[in-house]
């Protein structure tokens, strides 16, 4: 049963009960219409209350029905709302905890609404590239006023019930209950009070005007256009709400419907819905059951107070966990602490962090030069130099001092986590936690599962990741893990493109037009060209046959390490991030080309984009095949959250699916004929060929 029908005197109560958030799936929708009908047929019933069991009134559509036809099966949500509106007996929504999307649209169809204080209210559809599709764009402006309603619909942000109740003239809530606990009793009393009220009030009959008329919408459209970037939904939200002010209710609903159906079919919404599901799926590990007992993580130690250690520490301080930071020397500790303070103070200055919160966080931070002082920490994260010898020393020390059961994590970006685990006598407690720079900002966390990592360690770090608001993706052990292993191929292609005829700016512009936040050369300037130089040097030793363009090495030999030196692939003015093309760098690219006897050719933006993106796809297919990533959707999450892949394209794997894997393979075969490229690399991964042969996709 996904809803219950109970009778309290003359009031029928329909309680949605579809955990976790009373999603309005088919069975729940049917239970609502059945309940409303049952109440019509019972002469002893005078009014009806709809409420939710557990943690929500309703979180809206049932995500299990996403993208399936089930959401459309009658009674669909619009029919349910009509049935509620047409009830001959008053229907009261008793709202608490969470009231979002379709849940809010259902409430808006009721004759009255009582909300508990502290309830989270939102129309989050825009975050999935949609707009409210069951009358929300027409009813919310009528109930709440045009401006606050448009803000909610365009942003998808959560607003607390008591804040909404304070808006002048609002008709969204007839009453705010004393407390969440008294909501049930108060709504029964309210239902008895309004039992005889006729005619029954309907939100659809309320007037809907903005004093500035269409002028306001012009202004709103300009604002929204800037923020919406590559997504069509926000502007359609403006159109739909404007229709509410210009047309009859039914005509407005028709406008909403048309926009909703078009958006549903848009690639942008498809990508966002894919990412929504993929993010949830990424947190589940197939062989680690959901009820795996967790280790208790109440305190954390971080080794190394450099670029990464400081940012990693901040994540835990932000989440209210005490952190002990260890360094080799006091001055390194002092520098690390100063950077953390500076970062927090910048947030305070911008009004993003309150002074007392800042102080609370700093009070949770302590420092030491002595490993013995770490012994009580529940988890330790190592972020020292990227050298195996240094990691060995650190992990042997940790093995000596840490209490049994503590989780020992390494933030290594390239080293073998199995080898690191084997420096200890407790490899089952060792895991990779690969944060991205800046570690206090970037959402992605690669959780590197070594051969012996215990299941409860995996389960625990996935929960810890959530606690520090990271999106975690599990990777197996390999050079570069999921993300950097793929980006290495992408970087190699960028180099070959220079050798064959492109300038850095041409490559960057093409891929930025595709939607990447930054092209490969701007990105490398930001990360530091010396970092990839060091990795290339190591790889040259390990894999001398691996082909690379020499230009990046030549650039580094000139000391052009990127933004931090004011010069990289581009020039930079101190304090600014604008990338200014440099004629000497272009001349260096040309000279290198000539020295190899290459005749440059004109390369189209399409080829640039395909070679960069499909290089990610081919490497990803190998990664999937080897079981380094468990699911294609995990790779999409890693790329959108960690590498600036355009979210409107849903990640490299969904993009490849949408282009069609057959077409992707054909392109790879074409690239494999280019002698200036790495022809071996472009042999399509066996998994790709298999999927094409079977007519399947990655997702
Ligand atoms: P960093 O040089 O900025 O900081 C390293 C810190 O570790 C230094 O402050 C150093 O004093 C300290 N240290 C060195 N040996 C130590 C020891 N034995 N005991 C205690 N402290 C010691 O380096 P970083 O960029 O923060 O990188 C740290 C780790 O994070 C590396 O493994 C790196 O691969 C990884 N990583 C870096 C990035 C990045 O973008 N910088 C991203 C992801 C992962």
Total separate domains: 3
Helical segment count: 28
Largest β-sheet summary: 8 strands, mixed
> Which ions, cofactors or small ligands are bound in this entry?
nicotinamide-adenine-dinucleotide
Q: Can you characterise this structure?
A:
- There is one protein chain.
- The protein has about 700 residues and is an alpha/beta fold.
- A hairpin with an 8-residue loop joins strand 18 and strand 19 (about 580).
- Helix 3 crosses helix 4 and helix 8 (about 215-230) runs antiparallel to helix 9.
- Helices cover about 50% and strands about 10% of the residues.
- The protein has 28 helices and 19 strands.
- The relative contact order is 0.06.
- The chain folds into 3 domains: about 5-265, 2-enoyl-CoA Hydratase, Chain A, domain 1 (Alpha-Beta Complex); about 300-475, NAD(P)-binding Rossmann-like Domain (Rossmann fold); about 485-695, N-(1-d-carboxylethyl)-l-norvaline Dehydrogenase, domain 2 (Orthogonal Bundle).
- The radius of gyration is 29 Å and the shape is globular.
- The strands form 4 sheets. An 8-stranded mixed beta sheet has the order 12-11-10-13-14-15-16-17, sandwiched between helices.
